[in-house]
Protein: Aluminum-activated malate transporter 10
Amino acid sequence: MAPEKKALEGVEWRIRVADGSTEVPVPDMGLARKVWLRTKGLISCLGSNVWMFLKKAWDIGANDPRKVIHCFKVGLALTLVSLFYFMRPLYDGVGGNAMWALMTVVLVFEPNVGATIYKCLNRMFATFLAGFLALGVHWIASRSGDRFEPFVVGASVFLLASMATFTRFIPSIKSLFDYGAMVFILTFSFVAVSGYRVDKLFDFAHQRISTIFIGTSLCILVIILVCPIWCGQELHGLTVRNMDKLADSLDGCVTKYFTNTNGEDDKKTQGYKCVLSSKASEDSMANFARWEPSHGRFNFRHPWKQYLKIGASMRSCAYCIEALNSCINKENKAADSIKKHLSTSCLKVSSSTSSVIREVAETVKKMNKSPTVFMLIGEMNGAVEELRNDLKSLSQLLDLSTSAENKEHETPLMEIIPVVTLASILIEIAVRTEAIVSSVEELAKLAEFAAHDGKSKRSEMKDKIVPDEEKPEGKLEALQRV
Amino acid sequence: MAPEKKALEGVEWRIRVADGSTEVPVPDMGLARKVWLRTKGLISCLGSNVWMFLKKAWDIGANDPRKVIHCFKVGLALTLVSLFYFMRPLYDGVGGNAMWALMTVVLVFEPNVGATIYKCLNRMFATFLAGFLALGVHWIASRSGDRFEPFVVGASVFLLASMATFTRFIPSIKSLFDYGAMVFILTFSFVAVSGYRVDKLFDFAHQRISTIFIGTSLCILVIILVCPIWCGQELHGLTVRNMDKLADSLDGCVTKYFTNTNGEDDKKTQGYKCVLSSKASEDSMANFARWEPSHGRFNFRHPWKQYLKIGASMRSCAYCIEALNSCINKENKAADSIKKHLSTSCLKVSSSTSSVIREVAETVKKMNKSPTVFMLIGEMNGAVEELRNDLKSLSQLLDLSTSAENKEHETPLMEIIPVVTLASILIEIAVRTEAIVSSVEELAKLAEFAAHDGKSKRSEMKDKIVPDEEKPEGKLEALQRV
Structure:
C-alpha cells in the first residue's frame, strides 16, 4: 500500500507543475511526516481555539468577579446539601429522599437574591398546595375501586396540568407565580401518579415537602449571607448609570456637531444605545426586586415599579437622541454661518439639559431630594427660550441678506434645514427631560427621599435662586408650545 | 354582651348626628344582620373579582386558541407518560424510576417546537455526559478508601458545579447550552453523590438515562404531531406583521398631520411601538428556530439570524417615526400656507416609502424576490427629490413675501420650522427604509428566495421600468447627501 501512495503523491506533484504555477516544489514527504504535520496543525489550531476560549472566559470573570463568586456559591450550596447523603442520621431522617434537596438547590439557585427568593417561595408554596390536592385526589381515587383508580388519577392529572399551564399565560399570574405553576404540575402529577404504586403515600408527600424545605432554606441562607447580589440595588444602579450615559451622549453628540471633533469619544456618544436596549433587564429586575427583604437603603416595599416608568421616560429621550445622531452623521451640508449663529444657544441647551439629567441621576443615586433641580430646569428653559429667539432671528438674517442684495452672503434655505432640524429635536429632548424629572420626583415622593442635607453647597445656591424656581410648571407649559 | 354592643351602636349613631351631616339615619340593625350584610358584600366582591378573572382568562384563550391547545398538549403528554406507572410491565422495565420520565415532560415541554427540541437535546446530551463523568468520579472515589470517598466526591461536585455554572455566563455557550449546563450539574451531583448510597450505581445511571430518553421522545412526538407551533414560522410572521405596522404608522402619522384628522385610527398610528418592543422576542425566537427541523417553506439551515438584522433595521426606522410623532403631537403652530406648500410632496414621500416597506413585507411573506421593489425605490427617491425641491422653493416663497413688501403674506421662520423638521425626518426615514430593503435582499440571497412568478402583474410592470431601475444604488447615494 505504501508504494502506491508514493506513486500517487508523485502524480499529484507532477500535476501541480503542469498547472504552470511558479510554486517552488516541496521536497517529497513520507506519509508519517504528512500525518504528523497535519496532526500538529490540527492540535495547534485546537489549542489556539481553546486558548481563545479560556482567555474570553477569563475576561468575563475579570470584568465581573461577582460571576465567579456566584459559581463558588453554587458549589458551596451543593456541597452543603450533599452532607445529607454523607451523614447517616440526616439521610435516614428524610427516608432516603435527600436527592430532592439536591435537586431543589440546583433548580432554585439564581445569581441574585430576588430571583432565588422568588423561586424558593414559589417552590415551597406550590409543593404544599399540590401535595395536599394530590392526597385528596388519591383518597377519592382509592374509594372508586381498583378498576377506576387509574382513570380518576389520569383525568385529574390531565385537567389540573392543563389548567395550571393555562394560568402561566395570564400576565398577572405569570409575573408572580410562573415558576410556582410549573412546580405545582410537577408535584401534583408526581404524588398523584405515585399514589398508585407507593404504598406510604403520606410519608412520600411529607418527605418531599421537608426535603424541599431543607433545600430552599439552605439556598436562601447561602444567597443572602455570602456576597449577596440584590436585584433592587442592581436596578437602582442601572437606572443611575443609564441617566449618566444619556447625559454624556447628548453632550457628546451636540459638541461633536458644532466643534467638528470627530471620533475621539465615540463610546461616550453611543451610550444612549444602552438605554434603548435595557428594557428587558429592567423589567425582570423590577419583577424580582419586590421579593427581596429590606436591604441597604431600600425597604421591603420600595416602589420598584416606578423605576420602570423612569426607564420608559429615559428611553423616550433616547429615541430623540437617536434622531439627533442621524442628523449629525448625515453628510454635513449646513452652512457654517448658520451653524455659528446657533452654536452658542444649541450648546447651552444641550449642556443645561444634560446637567438636569445628571442632577436627577445624583438625586436617585443619593436618594436625597435635590435642591437645585428646579433651578437647573429654569436654566434649561431659559436656554431653550434663547434658542427659540436665535431661530427667530435667523429669518432676519435671511431677510437681510436678500434685501440688501448682497448676493455673496446669501444662505440658501436648504443649508439651514439640518441645523434647524437639530435645534428642534434638541428642544424636544428638553421637553422629554422634564418627563424624566417628573417621574423621578414621583419616585422621591413614593420612596420618601430625605430632603437634601443643609451643609451642601447646593443649599446655599438654592437660597439665592428661590424666586426663579417658584413656577417651574408655567415654564414647562410655555416650552410645550415650541 | 349583646346589650353592650347595642349601647355602643347607639353611641356611634349619636356621634354621627353630632357631625352635622345630613345623612338619613339608618334603622338600627341586629348583629346577625350586620354580619350577614358584610358577608354578603364580601362574597359579592369576591364573586365579581373571580368573574373578572375568569373573563380575562376567557379573553386570553379566545384571542389565541393555540394557548388553549398547548395546555391540552401538556395534559396529554403527562397522561401518556403516566401510563408507565399504570402498566406494570413498563413500570418494572425502568425499575420504578418512571418518575424521571414524568419530570422530564414537565420541565421540557414548551409552547413551541424549537424551545422543546432545544431543551430535549440539551437534557439528553447533558445527562449522558454527566452520567459518564459521575461514574468515573465514583470509580476513583471508591479506590480511595472509605475515609476519603466523601471528600473526593464532595470536591468533584464543588469543582464541576462551579465550572458548569461559570459556562452559563459565556454568551456563546449560554445561547446554545444554558439548559444543558443546568441539567449537567443536576445529573452529575445526583449520580456522584448517590454513588455513596445506591449500591447498583450503574443501573441507576442507566435507568435515569433511559427514562429521560422516553420522556424527551414523547415530548418531541407530541409537540410536532399535535398542532405544532414553529418558532421559525412565528418569527417570520412577526417580521412581516411588524413591517406592515411600520408602513401603517408612517402613512397614518403623516396623513394625520396634513389632513388634520384626529384620533380616528390611533391604533394604526401607534403600530410602530410594537416594532420598538419586539427585540427580546425576536432574539429568543431566532435562538430557538435554529433547533427546528425543516418545516413548511423553511429548511433546517434557514438564515434565522438575518431576521434579527432586519428587525434592527426596522427598529432604526421606528425610532425616526417616534421622532416624527413627537413633531406631529406638538401643539401645532405651523403656518397653513407652508403646510399646504409641502403637503403634496410629504404625502408622496410617506406613501411611496410605505409602499416600499409593504412590498418588502410581501417579499418576505411570499419568499419570492420582488420584481417591483427597485421601481418603488426609484419612485420613493423621486418623491424625496421632489420634496427637496419644494423645500428649496420655500426660500423663494419667503423671499418673495418679503421683497414684495406684502406684509400680510409674510410667514415667520418659526412657523416653518415644524414642517421643515418633519420633512427632514421623513427624508431620513426614506434613507433608513433602504437599509430595510438591503437587509431583506441579503435574506433573499441567503435563503435563496425564488424569482417572482412570470404570471404576476408585476412582471409586466417590470418590463416597462427596466431602464429606470438600472442603477438604484446611484440614487441611494444621491439621497444620502440630503
